[in-house]
Amino acid sequence: MTASIRQQAARVLLGNWTGHSTVPSHSLYPHQWSWDSAFIAIGLRHLSPRRAQVELESLLGSQWADGRIPHISFSPAVARDAYFPGPDFWQAVTQGGVETSGIIQPPVHALAAWLTHLADSDESVRRNFLARVYPKLVAWHAYLRDRRDLGGRGLVAIVHPWESGMDNSPAWDAALARVEPAPLESFTRRDTDHASDSDRPTDLDYGRYVQLAATYRDHGYDDGRTPFAFALEDPCFNALLIASEHALAEIASALSLDPVPHLKAAAALTSSLSTLFADGIFEARDLESERLVAAGTISGLVPLIVPGLVEAEELLATACGPRFRFGEVRMVPSYDLTGPAFEPGRYWRGPSWFNTAWLIHRGLVGLGRTDLAATLRTDVLELAATTGFAEYVDPHTGEPRGARDFSWTAALALDLEQ
Ligand code: 9WN
Question: Can you give the residue ranges of the Mannosylglycerate hydrolase MGH1-like glycoside hydrolase domain (predicted)?
Answer without folding.
Answer: 29-409
